[in-house]
Each structure stands twice: as C-alpha cells, then as structure tokens.
C-alpha cells in the first residue's frame, strides 16, 4: 500500500521494479549515502573509517556486531549525550525493540531517515498478530459486558484505568440497536468461528506479521477470520526494514520477501550445517559460517543470517534471523524466514531453537484436540539448579485437560526434541525428564503487564519463547501461577 498521498500505488510498484532491476548499484549508492551522512559518527571513526565510503574500506574497518556491542553508545544517548555517537547528527530518539536483554526492553537508535524507510513500506497497525488473537480471546470472555456498555452508553466498572474511562466516555453513547445486533451475531457463532467477518462484514483480509514467533497463533487466527484470507506483512524489525511481501495471496507459511535494496545495506552470512545435522526439520544452531556476501551474491536454496547497515546508526549489525533464498525478483533476492538464530534451550551439549520448541509444542498440541482444547500460549526455560538439569515447558490452556492427556503431552514434548545432543543426553540421563507446567488463565496477560511496567509498548510485545534463568521476575510470575506439573516418562524413570 502506498503511504504518501502524492504517490499512486502504480508509481510505487514502478519505482520498486526500477530499484530491483539494478539492486547491486542501488546497494552501493545506499551504503555510500549512509556513510556520507554519518561520517562524523564516533562509532565509525573509532574503528578508523575516517570518512571513507567505499565498500572495501567499510568491510575492512567495521566489524560485525550485535546489540551488546552498541549498548555503551545507546546508554550514552539515553543519558542525554548530544554528540554524534552512532550517526552524523545527534540522536534524540530511541525505539523499543520487541526483543529483550535479560527481561528488559531493548533500546535501538531511531532517526528521521529510518522513519522515512519505515513509512515507505508499512502502515500503522498492530504489527504482531498475537495481539489480535488475544483481543478476540478477551472478546469471548467479555462480549456480554461489551453489549451492555453499548446498550446503556456507560462503561463497565471493570475498566478501572481513569484515562481509558475518560476517553471512552467522550464517544460512548447509548445504542440499543447496535448492542442487539452484536449480541445476535455473537450468539449465532459456532465456537466463535468467523467472528471477524461477522462483526466487520466489509473486511477483506486480515493483515499482520505471521511468521517466526507469530506462527503458533495462525490456527486460532484462521478460526476467528473464517473465510477471510490471512496476508503476511512485510519483513522488518525495530532495527530496520528488510523486504516486502510481493506475493500477498500466498498463505503465511509460504510467504517470501523481496529485499528492498534502498532501505539499508545488506550482507548475508552463509550458514552450513554439518552433514550429521542435515535433518529436514532441524533448527539446530550448529552452523558453519563463511564470510558475508552481498545482496546480489546469494545463492538460491542456501541459508543465511541477515546483516544490516541502516541510516539509523547500525553498522554490520547481525539481526539473528535465519533466512533461505528461494528465488530472485529481478536482481534482488526473495527470502523465506526460517527462524531466529538465538539459542533457546540448552543444558549441556543439547541445542534447540525457537523453531524446535514450536515444532515440539505443535506435535504435543495434537493430543489436546481430542478434548477440544487449545494452547492459549506457551513459553519455556531450563532448570539447572537440579542435577541433572531439565527442560521446563509452560502452557496456558483454554480449559482443563485430563491428567492422562497431560501426561501424554509431557512425553510427546520430550520425544519431539530430536536434536542429537538432547536425545543422547536424555538416554544417558545427563538431562532429566522434561517437565510440563500448566498455568492459570491470564498468566501471559500478567507477563504482558510486567513488560509494560518496564516501559515497553503493547504493540511491540511478543510472548518470550524462552525465559532466561536470570529473568527472575517473569519466572516468579510463571512459578506462582503454575497449577499442575507433569514429568515425562518417555525415556524411563
């Protein structure tokens, strides 16, 4: 969708075609522009770049980096330092990433140039679809109260935040006809299937980020959407934008993204798995890395980690995203998001990622279907204070499940982790039985509230799939809300 009023969608598409036909040249120009604008940045000059803008000097002087490398600079910006630290002009804004550092929201540099690239490809919306799923789960619980509020024109006393009550009071007027219509439509739904088109009959599709950590919500979102298509949003992060979904009719599981060569300078670290780990569904992080290659140098069928240089003060920054090149649009690659590279679960030689965890939860979740139950949300951690250590999986369920089913789920989860290091360690008992913990309803809402109390934004919240043992506050929330616990017997007692 075109954001700028002066630009038609057709013109935007034509511009995109021109840029992607000569992506290599556009990349060179983009890097030169970034380095010219930020020639006075302390970070660049610390590594001896000294105003040079050619690719060879840039790659030889500036190392690959991660967020922890930038934290001293970001902290100085947060403390009010007005010198050109990461950019040529002093930064006056920081953005909050959906990621965290030991449970605290992660700050990233943000400036007008980065805002411009954002406006080129995104519109204001709830980016992460888990918030939409949670909203409709809340609707299931409070729809009758909502109808009463609309009918009487008075907000329920259950809403206690003064600013919200004041804002709603300005627009809420008695509307019995609308209340009756909503009540009738909700009563006519079968287990809330198709609630979105029922309440919004003019809706054409549901749009948002639906890859990576959002994938577990797709089944429930499809249920709420009914016959409406789900369209995956463009590929970006708080760090910067990467690509556009130019095939919106593809289902979210098959979506690809054409890299936008003008939004930043991109490099790709080639990743190879050792032969012993070449399994179809493995998301192991035992990768062998090669030197980064440029945008037009990637190969179809290969996997890479994305590295980005932005107008906003990130230089050769490792996003931690693993992608597969599935083709090219003109001369720019089309990427499929595979998973986050960051390690999720590990006790000794075992290594499992977010994707491995997601696959295990999906497999065990099939056992709940016989009882017509769903996993509302989930997360994980590791217990290392005991010997041997073990995996902890936390589930919040839509309703109570039988003891037998939950014991079977614990066993299924344990067996679904197929990483060789994990399987071998379980067999020789250097990793203990996996523990499945069942949580009270509303536990993940409490985790969201904790995130907001740290200064995070609700639109940026993503359920953390792994809770670091150092994140004491969130672990305390999980532990005090645990109602039942089941240990796997899959590898014997």
TrEMBL record:
One of its GO terms (molecular function) is acid-amino acid ligase activity. Residues 257-340 form the GH3 middle domain. It comes from the Eukaryota. Residues 355-468 form the GH3 C-terminal domain. GO terms for cellular component: cytoplasm. Pfam families: GH3, GH3_C, GH3_M. Keywords: Ligase. Belongs to the IAA-amido conjugating enzyme family. This is Jasmonic acid-amido synthetase JAR1. It comes from Dichanthelium oligosanthes.
């Amino acid at each position: 969708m075109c954001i700028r009023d002066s630009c038609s969608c057709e013109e935007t598409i034509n511009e995109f075609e021109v840029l992607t036909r000569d992506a290599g040249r556009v990349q060179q120009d983009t890097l030169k522009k970034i380095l010219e604008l930020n020639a006075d940045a302390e970070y660049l000059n610390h590594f001896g770049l000294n105003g040079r803008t050619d690719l060879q000097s840039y790659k030889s002087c500036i190392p690959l980096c991660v967020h922890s490398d930038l934290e001293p600079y970001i902290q100085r910006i947060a403390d009010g330092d007005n010198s050109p630290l990461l950019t040529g002009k002093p930064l006056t804004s920081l953005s909050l990433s959906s990621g965290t550092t030991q449970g605290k929201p992660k700050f990233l540099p943000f400036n007008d140039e980065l805002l411009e690239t954002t406006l080129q490809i995104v519109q204001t919306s709830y980016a992460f679809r888990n918030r939409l799923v949670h909203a409709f789960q809340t609707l299931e619980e409070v729809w009758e109260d909502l109808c009463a509020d609309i009918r009487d024109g008075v907000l329920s006393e259950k809403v206690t935040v003064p600013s919200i009550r004041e804002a709603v009071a300005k627009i809420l007027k008695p509307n019995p006809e609308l209340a009756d219509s909503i009540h009738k439509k909700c009563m006519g739904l079968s287990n809330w299937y198709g609630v979105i088109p029922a309440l919004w009959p003019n809706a054409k599709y549901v749009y948002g980020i639906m890859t990576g950590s959002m994938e577990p919500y797709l089944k429930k979102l499809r249920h709420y959407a009914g016959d409406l298509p789900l369209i995956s949003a463009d590929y970006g992060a708080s760090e910067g934008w990467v690509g556009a979904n130019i095939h919106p009719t593809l289902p979210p599981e098959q979506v690809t993204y054409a890299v936008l060569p003008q939004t930043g300078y991109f490099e790709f670290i080639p990743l190879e798995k050792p032969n012993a780990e070449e399994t179809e569904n493995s998301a192991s992080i035992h990768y062998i890395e090669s030197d980064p290659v440029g945008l037009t140098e990637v190969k179809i069928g290969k996997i890479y980690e994305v590295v980005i240089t932005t107008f906003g003060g990130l230089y050769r920054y490792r996003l931690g995203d693993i992608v597969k090149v599935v083709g090219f649009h003109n001369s720019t690659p089309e990427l499929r998001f595979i998973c986050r590279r960051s390690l999720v679960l590990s006790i000794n030689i075992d290594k499992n990622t977010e994707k491995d965890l997601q696959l295990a939860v999906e497999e065990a979740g099939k056992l709940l279907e016989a009882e017509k139950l769903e996993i509302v949300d989930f997360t994980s951690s590791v217990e290392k204070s005991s010997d041997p250590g073990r995996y902890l999986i936390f589930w919040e369920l839509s309703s109570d499940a039988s003891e037998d089913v939950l014991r079977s789920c614990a066993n299924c989860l344990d067996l679904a982790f197929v990483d060789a290091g994990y399987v071998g360690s379980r067999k020789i008992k250097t990793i203990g039985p996996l523990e499945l913990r069942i949580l009270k309803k509303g536990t993940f809402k409490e985790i969201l509230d904790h995130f907001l109390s740290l200064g995070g934004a609700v639109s940026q919240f993503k359920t953390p799939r792994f809770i670091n043992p150092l994140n004491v506050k969130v672990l305390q929330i999980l532990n005090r809300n645990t109602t039942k616990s089941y240990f796997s017997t899959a590898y014997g007692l």
